[in-house]
User: Fold these one by one.
Assistant:
Number 1:
Amino acid sequence: MIRSLIVWTLVVIAVPLALVRPFFGILAYLGFSHSRIADFVWTGYSVENYGLFIACTTLVGYGVLEIRKSPPRIRGLKGLFAFWLWLVLSSLFAYNVSLAYSKVWQYSTILLITCLIAAMGNSENRIKNLLLTLGGSLGFLGVKGAIDLVLTGGKFRMEGPGGMTADTNEYALAMGLGLVILLGLAPSQQGLKKWLLRMSGVCCGMVVIGTRSRSGLLGLVLALVLLTLYSRRKLIGMVGLTLATIAFLLFAPSGSIDRYKTIQGAEENDPSAMARIAVWHAATKMIKARPIFGVGLRNFELAMPLYSSLEPRAPHNAFIALASEAGLPSCLLFLNFILGASLRMFMLRRRLRRYEHLQNLATYCKVIHIALIVYLVPNCFINRQDMDLMYHLVGVGAGLGIVAEIELYKLRRRTAEETEEIEEEGEDEEHLLEGVAPA
């Protein structure tokens, strides 16, 4: 009951504030969506459709008060729009069109929020607040999960609170991305905030171990390696990575260790892995039969009996799922907008880190670049191609890209003006010298 009152109070405060301050509304929406705090309320007292309330008032507030200052942005999102349009088109040829369009609606709502993030993320301070909100929301889950892990001694496999993080594999993926955001942002903060980010990032890593997810472990290892490679103090980062490895070997729950030992030889001995490979073979037949438009979004299990005698189940691979449900072009477009966004952040970071006063922007670029790369690896073994967190990071990246380009343009212009002044001073000196006769 008390939890319900707290959550309802937060919603009641957030809805009117979202109307008059749309950027606060988008932060509130992200906070509620990724912390999943409503899922910790007992059934019967739960807060239904809180996201819809906050999103609608934010959209109205944006259209009335914010749109002139923060106009919609296409740059940085063209690949995402192309992907969405292909999903709409492919759904016309689905086995069950109603199922396909229910999934298109989900993608559409994610795209709308992503566009709002890109539009209103138009300053360094706003980009920082967006990333801190995402990181803080995931950090909340990480801290709570780490406490549960310690109290239970890791005897039970940890599961997520709900939504897109309900399953253990999806929960591990979200916590891995949370670790990247939190540990990546920490160097740009000061004092207590820096240590809170680091602590909650470590907690997210502990939760990944607690889920016993093998795909999550792969993402976690990649995240730690990339954060070390991109660290300014690589030696300290390598020492930290070594200590983390030792701590894992000494203190990781036995259930997690036993689960990870099955990675080697999983194709021959692990029933779960063997079932996935068999489903992938069925998906390959779907792709060969319908390579352009696929069988339709959410139609994989419905169509599977036509291509295999196996019991219908999800493909557990985001790329195979997209190729079989919406055709090979959808998979290519999916990879294109993610890798394109990550590459843009990588290139911008290289340019920004040359200037001392732009180091924070360079850090934000690094965080998004690494997070998008880490997102792809676990998705080779789970189908979370619709994970809203990834799309929201792409939206932040689109806004950040424009902010960074503006700052770099200002620097180029300032440099050009200074060069012109020096040239003009040189010309004045030449004119003066022309009137001086040699001795």
Number 2:
Amino acid sequence: MGGDPSSITDVIITHLHFDHAGNLDNFPHARFHIQEREMAYATGRCMCHAFFRQPFDVDPVVDMVRHVYAGRAVFHCGHSSVAPGLDLHWVGGHSDGLQIVRVQTARGSIVLASDAAHFYDNMRKKNPFPLVYNVGDMIQGWQTIAALAEDETCIVPGHDPAVADLFSKMRPGGVEAFLLHERPKEEAWKRFAAA
């Protein structure tokens, strides 16, 4: 996106699944914010079972262990404030230490749900994504997400392609990014909400 990765001082890791924890070594001066439960889960006895191990790649997990030993890990337990207007909240469910991120913006509190809700419909239809560590924590996490967000337009699921249709785009450095601090496109949201 045109930024210098060596200038990044803090990286939030929602969980250590391969699609959320790769490339940690590209940030040579960063501290990594992670829930203590996630580190214990990714390196503990649950990983003896193929089902729980499946969404992890051992290399990013080992990289994170190295960052712990290098003094570059910041462990959180539950709710923490990382900076003014930037909070982390443990919800678990999809992974034992999954955390969501609440960011204060001009339009209110945006909740980056990560994989607490892969898709809007996971929450809307009360239908958990099938890759789950604890269904009870996942369902309770949806309530936490709803309570933290200003309204449904302020919830951003981790993998829903609808986000690309609902929010305006920009292309810094040729990379597609979405303007989540702006309200979704009105007509697109009306169609989506009515579906």
